[in-house]
Design brief:
This protein is about 35% helix and about 25% strand. By secondary structure, it is of the alpha/beta class. The radius of gyration is 20 Å and the shape is globular. Residues about 30-35 have low confidence and may be disordered.
């Protein structure tokens, strides 16, 4: 008997969805920062066993969209409801319901198994935890509740084993040696974007998109050229920094991570271009992979 299915992880921003997904996969596929809207795409991470295949899906945190890019991000969340075999709804201690009532209603009325993961319990008392478990059991009576700490890896194996029990019988959807549905250039783009999120403040990280225009791999090195898109000339200056120091720092940090990810030497060239109002331009969004309608 072979089992396979889609396990879709949803929740508000900053609840630790990407940390959990990477813990399940054993690889850093989803970028992680403390800033909201770090995840923009829907990313599949695939775990294979002899008789099972789990396809984990990390989606953007649920928000009320303010511009076209965020509208596209929420379309990824909608698609996660549509093809889920198991829904993982992640919350953290002290959190209330989802910011979107329609999405919350879909969880309450889901026809597939729902696992509610109460994350960051290492920051709570036993009394607070018990109180929260009781509250969530009332709000979503159809869910199984697991207190976890994704960062500390507490109870993650227990959740994984329960997902394995719940997986439907099915042949594998992807080749057994495949780790994700995304191409290598996607992870280059995301790694660079993560470093921008970590190194710049205010609006800058949210006005940025990254496009890798060249990716050439030989036996001992990968050479890549990536362009950082911003919306305004002033943002370009901030990204580059005094005598190029800020951009150089991003490149060095990204190269270190990418060498670990690919397991070989990496040479990366970074450029910055102004692409005015790309976040509100449907054609530009399609070019960057947000054509999910």
């Amino acid at each position: 008997m072979h089992k396979a299915g889609f396990i879709n992880i949803i929740g508000n921003p900053n609840v630790g969805k990407s940390t959990l997904m990477n813990a399940f996969i054993g690889e850093k596929l989803s970028i992680i920062t403390s800033k909201a809207q770090t995840t923009r795409h829907r990313i599949f991470g695939i775990v294979n066993g002899d008789d099972f295949q789990m396809i984990f899906s990390d989606t953007p945190g649920i928000i009320k969209p303010a511009y076209q890019l965020q509208e596209s991000m929420m379309e990824f969340v909608k698609s996660a409801f549509e093809d889920a075999d198991i829904l993982v709804y992640m919350v953290e201690i002290g959190e209330k319901s989802l910011k979107d009532e329609a999405f919350f209603s879909k969880i309450q009325n889901a026809k597939v198994p729902v696992l509610l993961l109460l994350n960051k319990i290492d920051k709570s008392s036993q009394e607070e935890l018990e109180e929260q478990v009781g509250e969530w059991a009332e709000k979503i009576p159809n869910a199984e509740i697991f207190p976890i700490s994704a960062l500390e890896n507490f109870n993650v194996v227990e959740v994984f084993n329960r997902i394995l029990e719940l997986l439907p019988e099915s042949p594998a959807f992807y080749p057994k040696d495949q780790l994700t549905d995304k191409p290598e250039r996607f992870f280059v783009n995301e790694t660079i974007r993560e470093k921008i999120l970590l190194n710049y403040k205010k609006e800058i990280p949210y006005a940025v998109e990254v496009e890798t225009e060249e990716f050439v791999e030989t036996d001992d090195i990968i050479r890549m050229r990536s362009v950082i898109m911003v919306e305004r000339d002033t943002q370009k200056g901030i990204i580059i920094g005094h005598k190029g120091a800020a951009l150089k720092k991003v490149g060095m940090q990204a190269r270190e991570d990418l060498e670990k990810f690919f397991g070989k030497q990496v040479h990366i060239e970074l450029y910055v271009k102004v692409n005015k109002n790309w976040r509100s331009n449907l054609n530009q969004l399609k070019r960057f992979g947000y054509n999910n309608k």
